[in-house]
Amino acid sequence: MTGTAFIAPDGGVRVEHVSKSFGPPDARVTVLDDVSLTIGMGEFVSVIGPSGCGKSTLLKVVAGLIEADSGTVTIGGEPVAAAARDKAIGLVPQAPALLPWRTVLDNVRLPLQVNRRANAGRALRDPSELLTSFGLGHAMRKYPGQLSGGMQQRAAIARAFVFDPAIMLMDEPFSALDEMNRDQQRLGLLDFWQSNRKAVMFVTHSVPEAIMLSDRIVVMSAHPGRIATVIDVDLPRPRAEADYATDAFRDLEAVVRGELHRVMEAAHA
Ligand SMILES: Nc1ncnc2c1ncn2[C@@H]1O[C@H](COP(=O)(O)OP(=O)(O)OP(=O)(O)O)[C@@H](O)[C@H]1O
Ligand SMILES: [Mg+2]
């Protein structure tokens, strides 16, 4: 069940020996230390670990928003900057970041309108179809302020799929939601992803969420941020709500919690 063997990805994400420090030379803090991981095409990988261990930093390096000090990130074999330019990467930030003065539909259309010329010839997805598949067909003409937090988050996820990116990066997209709403959103994303297989890197603090969604769970340790272990989630797909109650699910929960406990202990030793 546990292991660190990586399958070479065909066109997915390859992070090799990435290190990143922040701060002035006399007070430099290493946030990522020699991090390597791969996400194959169509593979769902969650990253879990203590607060401050560098999960968001790693996600931003993969998104091309932060440059690593050393190491490389390639997407489908090309450098991350080129992949970002080609809109091969979708990003769902922690806060939905919708523009309050535009309707939901116009928010989802926005990436298409921002740079029309650069978008010419790209495979694009229809914003209203996307909204419908995320259960927001009835809310397209509303403004973000008229939606619940969960609906806003779904609109932000729909928007990230507009360019039909091969790689989807999500940083705790459901963290602001209450448990029931969160579970609904999670199962909605699971359904969508099961019929739209992207390579996904998904940051979360929730163990059941990581298990329900992922093919593999990367457990990070802190100070400096390193990959402690990678856990294979060998539950059959398609998955659904009933899987929470299975013995296999509970066994995996114990394994992931055990690993998290271990990295927390090490951090306080
Ligand atoms: N731009 C920056 N400048 C200086 N320090 C930074 C910067 N970005 C992140 N850090 C530091 O790097 C460490 C890791 O931050 P990061 O946001 O990646 O953690 P995280 O694992 O996502 O935590 P959380 O679970 O709380 O979101 C923290 O100590 C943070 O203070
Ligand atoms: Mg974070």
Automatic annotation (TrEMBL):
Gene3D superfamilies reported for this sequence: P-loop containing nucleotide triphosphate hydrolases
Record-linked CDD domains: ABC_NrtD_SsuB_transporters
ABC transporter domain: residues covered: 13-247
Keyword annotations from UniProtKB, A to Z: ATP-binding, Nucleotide-binding, Transport
GO MF annotation terms: ATP binding; ATP hydrolysis activity
InterPro entries the UniProt entry points to: AAA+_ATPase (IPR003593), ABC_transporter-like_ATP-bd (IPR003439), ABC_transporter-like_CS (IPR017871), ABC_transporter_ATP-bind (IPR050166), P-loop_NTPase (IPR027417)
Coiled-coil ranges (or none): none
Pfam families, alphabetized: ABC_tran
Name used for this protein in its record: ATP-binding cassette domain-containing protein
High-level lineage: Bacteria, Bacillati, Actinomycetota, Actinomycetes, Micrococcales
